[in-house]
Amino acid sequence: MSMPAIEIGRALGIPIRVHMSWFLVFMFVSWTLATGYLPEALPGLSGQRYWGMGAAAALLLFLSVLLHELGHSYVAQRYQIPIGQITLFIFGGVAHMGKEPPSPRAEFLIAIAGPVVSLVLGLLCLGGTILAESVLHLSGTQGFVVLGGLLGIVNVNLGLFNLIPGFPLDGGRVLRAGLWAWGKNFHRATGQAATVGFLFGIVLAGFGALVVGGTVAGALDPSLAGNGGWLLFIGAFLGGAAWSARRQVGLRIVLDTTMVRDVMIRNVVSVSPTLSVQGAVDDFFVAYGFSGFPVTEDDRIVGIVTTDDVQAVPQGLWAWKTVLDIMRPSTEALFIPADWSVRLALDRMIQEGWDRLIVTEDGKPVGLITRSSVARFLQLRKA
C-alpha cells in the first residue's frame, strides 16, 4: 500500500485513515449496487435514486469493516497494545498494532473480536429486517429492508470469511493462538499458520482461475467472470501476505537469536564535548563517514552527537557552537548490554528515537550497535 492515505477522524483515540485504493472499491461497489442489485430488488426507481442508495450502502459496508477493526483494537488496547492507526483499503481494513500480543489468550481474544463484531452486526441487521418486513408491516420501508438485508448478509459473510484458519485472516490468528499455546513457540506457530494461509490463498486463487476459465470457455455463465476474478485477486493477495509473514518469521528468529556483541562495531571513535561543531564535521563526520559519535569526557560517555544534531544548527554558527551545545545527553536508555538480543536493541532504538546505542559489558563501553550495522548483518545473512 504505497499510495497515500487520508486521515478522516479518530475512534478510541486511534487515527482512522482511508487509503486511496478504497475510493476505487467505493466506486465499484456503488456502481454494482446501482446498476445490478438495487434495480432487481427495488424495481421502478430512478437512476439517481439507485446511485444514492448504492453510495449509502457502500459507505455503510465500509463502516461495518471499520467496526470490525475497532473490535480488534478495543481488545488490543485492553492488553496495553498500542494501535498506531486503522487503515481502510481495497481489501477491507487493517489495525496497525504496535507490538505482538503477550500471550496465546490475548492473541485469541484480539483475533476473535473482529468476527464477533461482524456476526453480531449481521444478525442485528437481519433481525431488524425480518422484524420490519414480517412483524411491523411498516409502509415505505422497503428500501431500508433491502439495505438492511444486504448489510446483514455482508457482515455475516465478513465474519465467517475471516474465521477461515489461514493467516493473516482472523481465523489464522486464532489458529496461531492455538498452536502457540500448544507448542509454546510464537514464531513456529506464526510460520505454521502462515503456511496454512499460503495454501488457502493458492486454493482460492486456483478456484477463481477455474471460474474465469469456465466463463471464457462457455462452460459457466459469463456473469460469474467477475466473481472468479475477485476470488483470483483475493487469493493472490492472501497468499502473498502469508508468504511475507513466513519471511518475517525467519527475520525475527534471526534477530531474537543474534546477540548484540555479534553485530556491534568494536572500534569506537568518540569526540570531545569541547570540540567545535565545525571541527567535528571536518575531523570526524567527513573523515570517518559515520552518522554519529559518542561524546566522551574523562573516559566517560556524556552523550551522543549525530548528523541530525549538526544539521539542526545553521552552518554559519558551526565555528561558534561546540559539540556540548548540540549533543543529546546520555541516559540509561542509551546503553545496552552486549548479551541482549538484536531485536531488543532495535526495539530500544525505536522506543527512544536513537539510531545507535552504546554496548556495555561488565559495566564498561565495548562498542556501538547501529541500525545500519544491523542492516548490513542481515544483508550478509540474506535474512
From TrEMBL:
Cofactor(s) needed for function: Zn(2+)
Binding site for Zn(2+): H68, H72, D170
UniProt KW keywords: CBS domain, Cell membrane, Hydrolase, Membrane, Metal-binding, Metalloprotease, Protease, Repeat, Transmembrane, Transmembrane helix, Zinc
TM ranges: 20-38, 50-67, 79-96, 108-132, 144-164, 193-216, 228-245
Membrane topology: Multi-pass membrane protein
One cellular component term from this protein's GO annotations in UniProt: plasma membrane
First-listed, main subcellular location of the protein, grouped into a coarse class: membrane
GO molecular function annotations of the record: metal ion binding; metallopeptidase activity
Subcellular location: Cell membrane
Catalytic site positions: E69
PROSITE patterns per record: CBS
SMART domains: CBS
Protein family according to the UniProt entry: Belongs to the peptidase M50B family.
Protein name: Zinc metalloprotease
Species this chain originates from: Nitrospira japonica
